[in-house]
Amino acid sequence: MKRPMRFVGDVAQLPAYGHGHRSLTWWGTMGFVAIESMAFVLTIGIYLYLAGHTPEWPPHGNQPALTFGTTFLALIVLSIAPNVWLNRRARAENLSTVRLGLVVMSLVGLALLAIRVFEFPALGVSYKESAYGSVTVTLLGLHTTHLATDVMDTLVVTALMFTRHGRARRFVDVSDNAIYWNFVVVAWVPIYLVIYFGPRWL
Amino acid sequence: MSAVDDPWLDPAQAQARLARTWGSLPGWWGALATVDHKRIGRRYLVTAFTFFALGGMLALGMRMQLAQAGSTLVGPDLYRQLFTVHSTTMMFLFAVPVMQGIAIYTVPLMAGTRTLAFPRLSAFSYWVYLLGGAMLWLAFLVDAGPDTGWFSYTPLAESQFSPGKRVDIWAQMVTFTEVSALAVAVSLVTTIVKQRAPGMTLARMPLHLWATLITSLMVVFAMPAVMLATALLIMDRLVGTQFFAPSGGGDSLLWQHMFWFFGHPEVYIIFLPALGMVSTVVETFTRRRIFGYPVMVLALAMTALFAFGLWVHHMYATGLPRLGNTFFMGASMIIAIPSGVQIFCWLATLWQGRPRFATPLMYMLGFIVVFVLGGLTGVMLASVPLDLQLHDSFFVVAHFHYVLIGGAVFPLIGALYYWWPKLTGRMPGERAGQWSFWLLFIGFNVTFFPQHLLGLAGMPRRVYTYAQGLGWDGLNLLSTAGSIVIGMSVLVTAWNLLRSLRRGEHAPPNPWDAGTLEWATASPPPTWNFAHQPVATDAHPLWRERESLPCMSGLALDKRELLLTSGVEARPDVRETSPGPSIWPLATALAVAALFVGSIYTPWAVVIGALPVTVTLIGWFWPKSLREDE
């Protein structure tokens, strides 16, 4: 037997979307941030484990050159400013400033990718040479995958906001993309320290 | 005509509009593009039970071989593939996906919402899971089945000792299933946190939802470890990195740490959803609220937390520092406490209630008996000195089948009988159900109890045969006889359920007089789940609201819309659009599969394969109409 229903309220007046933790995509993004943070933490764990099991670290004494990695660090940390601004503009649903912010963030992302190309050779070690080389290149590669993915995301969202779809819920997408960028930035700080100062301090 | 649900709307008219909005596309295209969580959930169940049957046949093959000493039925190479593909199938292609399949089907219904948070992501997960499973089994059929065991230890799994592609196929199958499981976990967490019916505060949330939430969080933190480990293994084998190769400064034990950091929580990832099912069935069939609800929730959370702190108990025999082992021994024993607390809470619930001993409850009672025995041998194995004696013996095989079959398969089959009327609209046969239970209970104990004794008598696991006169013959024969009885039980259940599809009684919305929201709608439910947004005034709204069910109006009828509620108090917050059918999840899954399979053979597959993955993801994301932006 189906029971009769009795109406105790109405939800028609509620907004059709919300920003931040009020939206589903925010929770989805946070879920993937948790998964990927775990991957970063574990890879750093592997680095420290291998360093602890190797008498001399790095095995051949070749330390990674600091120039490109540090430049990258400076630029990516500075990128938080336009990114936070973009997130605020997205929440205010101001299309013209959002477009501007997205173009700036796309250019910043591409510039960072360009620096990253020089970072790999600056490590001064091949992934085949030793476990040190393997884990160092993998750590940098893992971060690069995240960087490339988010730059691609940013380019797609930028293109989207220049079409007729640049409205309503799409501002939530911009905001979530900005949140993911913060994660890519924050993740780089410990990875930078491990890759460049692990060989110096351990 | 109103585009939103309102109390004065003609029910037939409202239903017609909901059917138009929430319906799948017709034909085979519709089948491939569907995002209906119930269809995806059913697919998960059918696929996972197919893998269960296949894995079970491999187990029967092993039991046939071991039935007598010196048997030549199966050679050593095939035997290695048998136990590897059996265990890999059961762990990665059956146990985890089947629990997620049940959750995909039941969670939105139990939470009182119209679909999952990310229906397309769930469709994608299913295709990835199916393709990964197919890859493993196709490889096995052409004699390229993995043969290094389900944990594939290095250095055995390094290319020096395992040339060919068998190990890579195993490792990439792991990647497929973990991508799938992670995506489902994110979708389930979001659904449970944001889409519970108004009024379903955390304190009123059914234990099945708690168990699913906690398990999904475990997936998020455990599965990256094995994905990373298998990726590094493939890199060692394919491009010559040195992670696990001692000659290049790598470390073989690193693999074991990585694997078991995932592998131990994995056991609880399989077992915790089952605990939710036990609580659900025990409540319904005793007609009583669970005894000690807050304690039950805490026990689930504590189990999940401790599960991350005992992986080293798989590695006592590797010569790690003694002091470290002692810590893990303590942790491994402590985890018995929250499990014990739950057992006592169920017993108290049964004691205070008026139990109806129908098939679902019988399976849960079987769980309590078998799982307690498995838990006791678990406490034995947690102890370092005893473990060093029993390590790699059949005692361990007996132990983990008691906890996994006892802890997961018994509750799962009980839950299948319980939710079958909801899934299909038909009642399963009760007599055949009771038969299936007793056959499984007896067959299981006859198969696996003797294996404890075999282990104590020194029989190692993973040997394809043994010599006569070691005193192992009789117990092995008994164990094989038991395995045939297990097979019969599975056949009885399969026959019973399939027969019910044609001849079973039609199921009313709530045949068991249960209290949770999935029983508030038709059996099987329409694609939109509920005609109106249900409201939960209690942990068991259907028990409290005998006269009429409270609900809310105002959700759109002409577009897929969900009500989002606040995370703790479940207060109505936002209406959000939910995506409709799309072929892009399947296209993306195929692109991802091409990348994964290609990268078994060449690292360039990752570079070249990234392009179709990117293109399909953009196709998936890009809005197809202006309405999607709203």
What does this structure look like?
The complex is a heterodimer of chains A (202) and B (630). Chain A has 202 residues and is an all-alpha fold. Chain A has a single domain (22-201), classed as Up-down Bundle (Four Helix Bundle (Hemerythrin (Met), subunit A)), CATH 1.20.120.80. In chain A, 71% of the residues lie in helices and 3% in strands. Chain A contains six helices and one strand; from the N terminus they run E-H-H-H-H-H-H. Chain A has helices at 24-52, 67-78, 80-91, 95-122, 131-161, 170-201; one strand at residues 5-10. In chain A, helix 2 packs antiparallel against helix 6, helix 3 packs antiparallel against helix 6 (170-201) and helix 4 (95-122) runs antiparallel to helix 5 (131-161). Chain A is elongated, with a radius of gyration of 21 Å. The termini of chain A are far apart. The model of chain A has no long low-confidence stretch (mean pLDDT 94). The longest helix of chain B is centred in the N-terminal third of the chain and has 36 residues, at 76-111. Chain B has 19 helices and four strands. The radius of gyration of chain B is 25 Å and the shape is globular. Helix content of chain B is 65%, strand content 3%. The model of chain B has no long low-confidence stretch (mean pLDDT 95). By secondary structure, chain B is mainly alpha-helical. In chain B, helix 12 packs antiparallel against helix 14 (394-424). Chains A and B meet through strand 1, helix 1 and helix 5 of A and helix 6, helix 7, helix 8, strand 2 and strand 4 of B. Strand 1 of chain A pairs parallel with strand 2 (549-553) of chain B.
